[in-house]
Amino acid sequence: MTSNARTSPSHPRKAATVSGWDLETDIAVVGFGGAGGCAAIEAADAGAEVIIFELASASGGSTALSSAEIYMGGSGGTRVQQACGFEDSTEDMFQYMMASAGPQADAAKIRNYCEQSTAHFQWLVDLGVPFKDSFHAERAIMALTDDCLLYTGSEKAWPFRQLAKPCPRGHNLYVEGDNGGPLFMRIVTDNVNRRERISVHYESRALTLIIDEDGAVVGLVVRENQRELNVRARRGVILCAGGFCMNEDMVRKHAPMLTRGTQPIGNPGDTGSGILMGTAVGGAAVNMHEGFVSLPFYPPASMTHGIAITDKGQRFINEDSYHGRLGAFALQQPSERLYMVLNVEDYADYETASYLGAPVAATGESVAELEAELGLRKDSLAHTIALYNEDCAAGEDTLFHKAAEWLKPLQPPLVALDLTPGRGVFVPYFTLGGLDTLPTGEVVNEQRETIPGLYAAGRTACGIVRRAEGYSSGMSVGDATFSGRMAGRQAAARVR
Questions:
Q1: Of the chain's two ends, which shows fewer C-beta atoms within 10 Å, N or C?
Q2: How far apart are CA 236 and CA 217, in angstroms?
Q3: Phi-psi map region of 479: left, alpha, beta (phi>0 left; psi -120 to 50 alpha)
Q4: Spatial contact of 81 and 73, defined as CB atoms under 8 Å apart
Q5: Nearest to 131 by CA among 140, 141, 139, 121
Q6: Angle at 226 between CA 224 and CA 229, to 5 degrees
Q7: DSSP codes joined into one string, 203-260
């Protein structure tokens, strides 16, 4: 053991200063969420000895807090897709995900994910993850029934439907309610516990990496029971320590747009420590300015019939888009206030069914009355609604291309909800930036050269998901579990 009072993620320890190793293993995994658990399983099944170091007193991470939808498809479709009558093309899945990621897309990483997606589905099934062969047709953020398959993004919305044939790829676990995350992590944890090559150290905080004279990662410093331990990792370290949404300083520095959100979505360990450890040994951090941000305006699905407007009375999006796309577009508007205007009948069971929490800003027995209550310029909203209703009658949204199935004229009485961040509406967020990695999980520097012995997965790495306006539910758990497997496989194959 080597004592160092100033041990921190940004200051790697030199192996030459380590007088002795307190623990030794082939692979050290930092974090026991979906990424870390899957990394350990894949590495152990490839013959490596693995120790997982988890900050908390139990496994779970942010995966356990999620609904554990998993975005999968391509290659003709998963078993569930095929059973529900959907044939999914790998190319369609690839094109959709490329468009979703936008200019930040990592084509190699997305291609690898799409081509191996159905195999990943089977890998999860073999672990014991249950999926019911049923389709949830209603528009929803998640299936609160025990149904599995549903559309979880903007697959059927413009412009994505023009670029790739829509297909549902969100796979919910076979469990009722928002209970997929705990079930998923229980299954992963059971699999970890059954493997003799894996041991787990709980209440163990990873402090910094250990590097040799050539800059290769050869170990990890952890704190357990108020003692610092030097851990030798013969084949490498896999960082699965989450993102940085719980680190206010890092969020303000790298992703200031997220400061307008109201609730960080993650676990207390999402402090960015894994990212800091990686950059301290030369790893590049990319996409740090981006994050997921949402205005979860559905359910109820009837809310989709409404229109989202600025304080100029103008629409700014096709409202059949995914709720994360609405959230991202909302933050981009040069407006002091944002509203959702809809028929009172479509307000329906909003107050009991919705997660949005947006307060009622105004009601009106006429458009003019609603305008007045909202303080909008006279006839500004009237013009927008008149044009929208004309398009509804014609069955084509000429301005924003909302799908015809959601076009419904706005007729008084009307209600307006306040979508303005900071005025009561629920705006959850988490970060999407992280260490730059190859599809194999190997961490690379600014020149895209690998850092020997260092791997990253889940939110510690910058994965297939790059921005909120192209997000689909299930991409995070899909990416975390898949990237964990890739990193575990690659690390296990490394020979020192």
A1: C
A2: 6
A3: alpha
A4: yes
A5: 121
A6: 50
A7: S-EEEEEEE-TTS-EEEEEEEETTEEEEEEEEEEEEE----STT-HHHHHHH-GGGGG
Q: How far apart are alpha carbons 436 and 187 in whole angstroms? A: 29
- Pairing of β 50-53 and β 70-71: unpaired
Token pair belonging to 249 = 């300083």
Residue 273 in contact with residue 204, Cβ under 8 Å? no
The answer to whether 295 and 326 have CB atoms below 8 angstroms apart is yes
Instruction: Give all domains of the chain, ordered by start, each with its CATH number.
Output: 13-65+181-292+428-493 (3.50.50.60), 70-177 (no CATH), 301-418 (3.90.700.10)
pTM for this one?
0.96
The enclosing H or E element of 451 equals strand 450-456
Within 10 Å of residue 47's Cβ, how many Cβ atoms? 10
Which has the closest alpha carbon to 312: 214, 378, 364?
378
Q: 359 by DSSP, 3-state: which?
A: coil
Q: Which amino acid is at 489?
A: R
Whole-angstrom distance, CA of residue 23 vs CA of residue 4: 17
DSSP code of residue 315:
B
DSSP 288: T
- The one-digit pLDDT tens for each residue of the chain (496 residues) are 444 457 999 999 999 999 999 999 999 999 999 999 999 999 999 999 999 999 999 999 999 999 999 999 999 999 999 999 999 999 999 999 999 999 999 999 999 999 999 999 999 999 999 999 999 999 998 888 999 999 999 999 999 999 999 999 999 999 998 899 999 999 999 999 999 999 999 999 999 999 999 999 999 999 999 999 999 999 999 999 999 999 999 999 999 999 999 999 999 999 999 999 999 999 999 999 999 999 999 999 999 999 999 999 999 999 999 999 999 999 999 999 999 999 999 998 888 888 899 999 999 999 999 999 999 999 999 999 999 999 999 999 999 999 999 999 999 999 999 999 999 999 999 999 999 999 999 999 999 999 999 999 999 999 999 999 999 999 999 999 999 999 999 999 998 6
Backbone angles phi, psi at 457, to 5 degrees: -155, 170
446 CB neighbour count, 10 Å cutoff? 11
Q: Are 218 and 212 in contact (CB under 8 A)?
A: yes
Q: How many helices and strands (H and E) does the chain possess?
A: 16, 21
487, two tokens: 């990193």
User: Is the preceding omega at residue 300 within 30 degrees of 0, hence cis?
Assistant: yes
